[in-house]
Amino acid sequence: MRRQRPEESGEQQDEANQTRMPTREQQSIDDESVDPEDLLPEHSVLKLEEYLAMQNAIGNETRFRILYALKQQSEMSANHLKEALEMRPNNLHYHLDQLCDVGLVQNRKRKTPDSDGLCSYYVASGMGKAILEHGGKELMRREHDFKDTYSS
């Protein structure tokens, strides 16, 4: 009696087809993955931990206010931020450093001083603008959708 080679076996072919073409049930399970890493874009330059660090940073009210001010004004010096937010310089710089470290704010330098003699200023990064627009602000906008949940 001749043995079938693996490629001739119907069982082997069925198994191979299942791995190549997932069923609707398998696709549904994949779409509902419980691994948050699956949320990352295919060739993400950032890791999940970096996105979580951004969320953590923006969860602080002082940092939220700094980032919001930068988004609204497009760029501000530390002096202007200090005055606008009525903060002590050391406290402001601590929070600016936190925002810069996670990539939500950028510190830029001018080659020549501005009219106030300042060369350094801060701007909200693209990620900083996005986290405000699609994170906190969107949640605040949709508060009425969840009114029943929080009005007890």
Calculate the mean pLDDT score and round it: 79
Task: Give the radius of gyration.
Answer: 25 Å
Shape: globular
Runs with pLDDT <50, length 5+? 1-9, 15-19, 24-29
Distance between the termini: 77 Å
Biggest beta sheet attributes: 2 strands, antiparallel
Strand arrangement, major sheet: 1-2
Q: Mind telling me the CATH superfamily name of the domain at 48-150?
A: Winged helix-like DNA-binding domain superfamily/Winged helix DNA-binding domain
CATH C-level of the domain at 48-150: Mainly Alpha
User: In the CATH hierarchy, what is the architecture of the domain at 48-150 at level 2?
Assistant: Orthogonal Bundle
Strand content: 5-15%
**Class per helix and strand makeup:** mainly alpha
N-to-C series of helices and strands: HHHHHHEEHH
Share of helix, binned: 55-70%
Which topology of the domain at 48-150 does CATH recognise? Arc Repressor Mutant, subunit A
Number of strands: 2
Figure out the total of helices: 8
Task: Describe the protein's architecture and organization.
- Keywords: DNA-binding, Transcription, Transcription regulation.
- Residues 28-37 have a biased composition (Acidic residues).
- InterPro entries: ArsR-like_HTH, HTH_ArsR_DNA-bd_dom, Metal_resp_trans_reg, WH-like_DNA-bd_sf, WH_DNA-bd_sf.
- By secondary structure, the chain is mainly alpha-helical.
- Helix content is 55%, strand content 7%.
- It contains eight helices and two strands.
- Helix 4 (61-73) crosses helix 6.
- The longest helix is centred in the C-terminal third of the chain and has 16 residues, at 126-141.
- The N and C termini lie far apart (77 Å).
